[in-house]
Amino acid sequence: MTVDFSPAFILHQRVFRESSLLLDIVSRDYGRISLVAKGVRKQKRSQAGLLQIYQPLLLSWQGRRDLQTLTAVESNGPAYLLRGESALCGLYINELMMKLLPLGEPEANLYIDYQKALFGLQEALQNEITLRLFEKQLLGHLGYGLVLDQDVETGESIDKGKDYYYVADAGLYRWQSGQERNRISGRSLQHLVTEQGFDEKSLNEIKQLMRMVIHFYLGDKPLRSRELFSQLHDASTHK
To answer: What are the structural domains, with CATH classification, of the chain?
Structure first.
């Protein structure tokens, strides 16, 4: 297989042997791909320096499906500049894509949603909202879309004055007093469905919902980025 200059982003890179890099990328036209960039660490800084996360790229590669060889790289626009908390949020969405996206299954709309998320994190105005919406979009693109508008037992529409709990791979159920389940209000669910009206309470409830659902689909794959968030929070609270 030979690919010429596909729009792509690097999700993660690591050193491979003495002079090469292993790259996990997401391509608009080919989905998630693993590449080896041979000898790139010995190349001129201007060339190797392009191979960074959050940098829009045009990549060429060839080889077999599981690990292919990078053959050319060009810039496809200015890099997104993520600083502080936004940089950690970017690592989180990159890690989600690496661990949830199958290899070689293109999803152009997800690529667009990823770019929008990077722009939102660069602006750093509403990082929590940016993350929750990207999580929702990613699950939908994977075929795990959340059914948020009706009670699966009764078929009734969600009532903003009532409380619910979500079962991954099943749907929403009415929450009853005494149940040991993460509760979410119908009001917060409506915010997530309409993607507007968020406030501190609804964002906190939606965060707990998304954490539970994503954990279900990740299985035993831990998220290193969450550990970094926890360490940063602990450090800030002990200053």
So the answer is: 2-75 (2.40.50.140), 146-239 (1.20.1440.120)
